[in-house]
Design goal:
By secondary structure, the protein is of the alpha+beta class. It is built from 5 helices and 16 strands. Strand 10 and strand 11 form a beta hairpin. It is elongated and about 55 Å long. It starts with 16 loop residues before the first helix and ends in a 5-residue tail after the last strand.
């Protein structure tokens, strides 16, 4: 809100110190108001309740926070969100708490003419960090590692022959794609070159990663991949430069 000056007699001064203090105090008090209005977006836009129900559906999160889990105003809330009629998207962080503890959740959600769909809900608590959609967490956090693999199957114009050696780097991703993979065979990048390599994944309590990217090079810049660290295999296939399949094998569990 801007200050609207009032008319003063000619020659009168508008530099009254009390007036300056009042104007400054008014501007200072507006910031909490903006913060309160801004932080209410998860509730007023409708994705708060689906997020909380997602948290309560994950036993690991419930063990850390207890139930019921609800929004708390003690903590930072921020992000980007927009809606138009029955459509919307949100990438937001807000504080949560339950009978056993407090934490914060980073949620990515989308609405396409129906209810809000929660794509990811990463929760940080005093007991650990969890991804509530896949229900994986501490003991289920993606830990960076490099796996040494051997090509066990290669058909078509595969980027490496049977018996070739490859390195598979598994690292934390971001947002909707909690894993980032990079595979090199014979010094050439097969998957995850440049800014690509992000994939959907889940992590079990033993730290084993299962990752999948259903796109091919012409769709998202990388071959299709299915990786199971616990199973000790990674299968890649693509249609560029022609249809090919390649299976990598490594010691189960990484």
């Amino acid at each position: 809100m801007s200050d609207v000056p009032t008319a003063s007699p000619v020659g009168a001064s508008n530099t009254n110190p009390l007036r300056r203090i009042a104007i400054g105090l008014g501007g200072f008090l507006m910031w909490p108001l903006f913060f309160v209005l801004f932080s209410g977006a998860p509730a007023c836009m409708g994705f708060e309740e689906p997020t909380l129900r997602t948290l309560e559906a994950c036993p690991q999160v419930v063990a850390a926070l207890g139930t019921p889990i609800h929004r708390t105003w003690m903590g930072m809330s921020c992000g980007n969100a927009e809606t138009s009629d029955a459509f919307g998207n949100a990438s937001w962080s807000f504080p949560v708490e339950g009978p056993n503890g407090r934490g914060s959740v980073d949620v990515v959600a989308e609405r396409r003419g129906g209810p809000w769909m929660i794509y990811s809900a990463n929760v940080e608590t005093g007991a650990g960090t969890y991804e509530a959609v896949s229900c994986s967490g501490t003991g289920g956090v993606v830990v960076a590692r490099t796996l040494s693999a051997t090509v066990s199957t290669a058909t078509g114009p595969a980027p490496a022959p049977v018996g070739g050696t490859c390195s598979i780097v598994v690292a934390p991703g971001e947002g909707r794609f909690p894993c980032r993979l990079r595979i090199e065979c014979g010094g050439a990048v097969v998957y995850g070159s440049g800014t690509t390599g992000y994939s959907a994944c889940t992590v079990d309590d033993g730290g084993g990663v299962f990752a999948s990217d259903s796109g091919t090079t012409d769709v998202d810049g990388d071959p299709h991949i299915t990786l199971s660290v616990t199973g000790g295999t990674a299968m890649l296939n693509d249609t560029t430069p022609g249809t090919w399949v390649m299976v990598l094998s490594f010691p189960p569990g990484g």
